[in-house]
Amino acid sequence: MNILVTGGAGYIGSHTCVALLEAGHTVIIADNLCNSKAETIDKIKEIVNQTSNENIDNQITFYKIDVTNEEAMGAIFTNHKIDGVIHFAGLKAVGESVEKPLEYYYNNIVSTMFLAKACGKYGVKKFVFSSSATVYGDNTVPFVETMKLLPTTNPYGETKAMSERILTDVVKANPDLSVALLRYFNPVGAHTSGLIGEAPNGVPNNLMPYVTQVAKGKLKQLRVFGNDYPTEDGTGVRDYIHVVDLADGHVVALDKLESGLHIYNLGTGKGTSVLQLVKAFEEANGIEVPYEIVDRRSGDIASCYADASKANDELGWIAKRGIVEMCRDAWRFEKNYKE
Ligand code: NAD
Ligand code: UDP
Description:
Blueprint: E1 2-6, H1 11-22, E2 26-31, H2 39-51, E3 60-64, H3 70-79, E4 84-87, H4 94-99, H5 101-122, E5 126-132, H6 155-173, E6 178-184, E7 186-188, H7 207-215, E8 222-225, E9 237-238, E10 240-242, H8 243-256, E11 260-266, E12 272-273, H9 274-285, E13 291-294, E14 303-304, H10 309-315, H11 323-336
Parallel strand pairs: 1-2, 1-4, 2-3, 4-5, 5-6, 6-11, 7-10, 8-13, 9-14
Antiparallel strand pairs: 9-12
Helix pairs in contact: 1-2, 1-8, 3-5, 5-6, 7-11, 9-11
The site of uridine-5'-diphosphate (UDP) has 15 residues, from helix 7 and strand 8.
């Protein structure tokens, strides 16, 4: 299939492009590079060419383009016969979304609406959307797809909840469209080649990139946000999922998607605390990660992990990689990475 991957130069998008190409699909990437680099496209080609019998360079096309530019995006749909869209493009920094709500609402919601509209106009039947566990709010763990969603705590989370509602209504109005809302838990790790991975701009907000930068000596020590949560060791619990497993989930969802709306958690179903992750990283890589306990971070919840059984039952997808692989692969990428 010809798959339009918005945000395909980004962290999850790049790993998904590798998985799509390896599965024999053709990818058309639309990314404005606001949080990624053009070199990533070459890295994607390099990874796939290493394992493929034929050169895949002509199966990947890159457009440096803003997804909210409806006219320019229309040209992509005219130039390529798109069979499916995976919509990763979006702004994702929670703190920044509080400071710049309009930017977040505009970028993340208008892009979803334009793409859904283009699917109708150009006869594209499959749409996969990057949602997030944040839409569950402070619910009871494990989070299951049938749960009533609770309020989100920031504009970023709200853009995901609103995009989900918009796509739900779009499917009601166009019953032969297939939409998958994939609710990611906490993606970490990197491709085993060490060529692509997570490279946030500035000081990382997320735990794993912060840990790898402390390990590299770029940051002095980790600040653990609170040790008085009602969890096993008092630190926050999350469901970390290897980005390659997450990428595979998209390929499977595209292949198996039937008409209508389908919601899947993509997580491992296992919770890991901040201190457990730090210990796993130290053991996996033989490096000490100094940390201090500080106050809770505003808006954080105690525990967040998936009931991942629906994706397994219906798609046959399951996360295969454990926390040790996540820590090893994240560190390999960080060691190799040059700004
Ligand atoms: P990322 O920032 O690495 O990738 C997003 C890509 O989209 C970047 O390459 C960026 O340049 C591009 N982009 C942003 N706005 C654009 C626009 N208007 N037009 C064209 N390109 C644009 O982020 P990621 O971690 O790969 O996340 C991908 C998606 O998954 C996002 O929608 C994010 O909200 C969602 N998500 C991420 C996480 C996570 O923890 N990483 C968790 C849940 C959901
Ligand atoms: N966390 C932390 N120090 C950091 C970054 C994160 O202690 O520098 C904690 C955070 O409080 C949460 C967990 O690590 O319990 C995962 O946070 P992250 O920002 O990676 O993901 P999210 O909060 O979005 O699930």
